[in-house]
Design a protein that fits this description.
heterodimer; A: about 270 residues; mainly alpha; B: about 260 residues; alpha/beta; six-stranded mixed beta sheet; 10 strands; about 35% helix; about 25% strand
């Protein structure tokens, strides 16, 4: 069979050598940044720019009291909760907006409006409505993440291929199965990129919300450290957050995305 | 006659007709661009014997695809009787499953070849293990054993068509309806798939109705070719193709058929 010869590569070969090289390059980058930081800190007072050693020992102090993990846990829990609520509301709402033209046209102006409201404004509203409590942070994360998820899911619903629906109808597939087998797989990549964006935004705005509307969490600790001019602690918290987010991105989200969407043709260089 | 009587008469007439597909005085109009009615099909009479291969041949706009869609039950006829396996087409049930193969392959990009074939069995309540077993058999039938786990983007055009063919065969249909199924492939791949289709037809013996605008394809595959003419769509002539398959277009007898049909359309 002649067309068999035309077989394309069935698995994309991962070139280990190149990947290791890339890893080494990144280590060099981190080391270089660290060196610049250290050099700059030598000629600056520690309350402006503390050196790496000071930050490291501040980190040790925070970690030793259990402060680090408790507050990270609290913040993470709030972000996760706001994010889950945003998904519960945003996913079905986005599908309805995309599947029903009239509803979609009616609500179309609402999303850009929601997206332009600054998270700081949501934080102020949240303090008026919920006071100093968990709900304040959760609300701000929710209000930031939800429009992002709706927008992306909406786009995904519009990308559903009508030919696939026709195929399913010819096979006499019931509506709920068409939803599960055609709509959801089409929407999933859009939802995933929306959720990723929403989670990242959620993390950042949660800190804003916690600095002004909370008595616990990383954001609150950051403000406290700043108020006490403990710049080394501010750096320690910040570095921990950066490290955690990078680990989450590279260790969980990227591999998950690669696995879920392995059916996509990779753009050739 | 009441509606119930009419249904009964239709049932009786269909039951008396022994053929796999039988159309009597089928008409179809669509709303035209200027609010007028466009007569797409007019008084179509067509009978397709069990296990035979029939080609619907005609220029574009002759109503070939509409006719196929009426047989498939995707489009409803305005008037006339459509019998499938001895029953009115609107009462079509499982024992006479008709399968439809589209012009394009319509493979779901997020499913592997095997899972795409399995898709055709997911409308009903076939258990997973049986679905996988039957999908595997269908994949082997079209000669793609080693590509079960490949995603559509990893397959060539011909291979994708094979997967689509396997998907329409996995339900073990008694009737296979094809709308210009291989028209998007290059000549060589297409010829491979013609041979595959004839081989599988020899094994499974399903009735095949296919739409084409390619005279040679019609003559190479069909037992009978219904030549259609446009505005309004009618069947001008049904030509039986006598030489036994496989047919070679260079053979004088086959070439004569090709010439004759070229003149007809």
């Amino acid at each position: 069979m002649a067309e068999m010869i035309e077989q394309r590569a069935l698995s994309v070969p991962v070139k280990r050598g190149i990947r290791l090289g890339l890893f080494a390059e990144r280590l060099v980058l981190v080391a270089a940044l660290g060196a610049v930081w250290w050099a700059l800190s030598l000629s600056t007072p520690p309350y402006v720019l503390p050196g790496p050693q000071r930050v490291w020992s501040a980190l040790g102090i925070i970690a030793a009291h259990g402060d680090l993990w408790t507050n990270l846990g609290i913040t993470f829990w709030r972000v996760a909760l706001g994010f889950v609520f945003a998904t519960i509301i945003g996913l079905p709402f986005g599908i309805v907006l995309g599947a029903n033209r009239r509803v979609g046209e009616f609500f179309e102006p609402v999303l850009p409006v929601l997206n332009t409201v600054s998270s700081a404004i949501w934080a102020i509203f949240a303090i008026i409505w919920f006071g100093i409590s968990n709900a304040t942070t959760i609300f701000v994360v929710f209000m930031t993440a939800m429009p992002l998820i709706i927008t992306n899911v909406w786009q995904g619903t519009r990308a559903v291929n009508a030919d696939f629906i026709e195929l399913a109808r010819v096979l006499r597939m019931p509506d709920w199965k068409i939803m599960a087998k055609i709509y959801l797989p089409t929407i999933l990549p859009y939802f995933f990129s929306g959720a990723r964006l929403a989670f990242g935004f959620g993390w950042r705005v949660s800190l804003v919300a916690e600095t002004i509307g909370s008595s616990s969490g990383v954001g609150y600790r950051l403000r406290q450290a700043a108020d006490l001019v403990r710049t080394d602690q501010v750096f320690a918290w910040t570095l921990t957050l950066v490290f955690l987010m990078a680990a989450l991105e590279m260790g969980v989200l990227s591999p998950l995305e690669r696995h879920l969407f392995r059916w996509r043709k990779e753009a050739e260089a | 006659m009441t509606a119930a009587d009419e249904t009964q008469t239709a049932q009786k007439l269909c039951a008396d007709d022994g053929r796999a597909i039988s159309l009597t005085k089928v008409c179809k109009t669509f709303p035209g661009p200027n609010g007028d009615r466009l007569e797409v099909l007019k008084d179509i009479d067509l009978g397709v014997e069990d296990h035979s291969i029939v080609g619907l041949l005609g220029a574009s706009g002759a109503g070939k695809s509409t006719l196929l869609n009426i047989i498939a039950g995707i489009v409803k006829a305005d008037r006339g009787r459509v019998c499938i396996c001895g029953a009115p087409s609107d009462e079509l049930n499982d024992w006479c499953a008709a399968s439809y193969m589209f012009q394009d392959d319509r493979l779901l990009p997020w499913r592997t070849a095997l899972r795409n074939v399995e898709f055709a069995l997911e409308a009903g309540s076939t258990p997973k293990a049986e679905r996988v077993r039957r999908a595997g058999e269908a994949i082997r039938l079209v000669g793609l054993d080693t590509f079960e786990e490949a995603f559509p983007y990893q397959l060539s055009g011909g291979m994708r068509s094979r997967v689509a063919l396997a998907r329409s065969l996995v339900t073990e249909p008694r009737i296979l309806l094809m709308d210009e199924p291989f028209s998007r492939l290059d000549a060589q791949t297409r010829s491979h798939l013609h041979n595959e289709l004839l081989r599988i037809h020899g094994l499974m013996g399903m009735t095949v109705v296919f739409v084409t605008h390619d005279v040679e394809e019609a003559v190479l595959l069909a037992d009978e070719v219904a030549v259609m003419s446009p505005r309004p769509g009618t069947i001008r002539e049904v030509v039986p193709i006598a030489p036994s398959r496989p047919r070679d277009p260079i053979e004088p007898e086959v070439a004569a058929y090709i010439r004759r049909l070229r003149e007809l359309i």
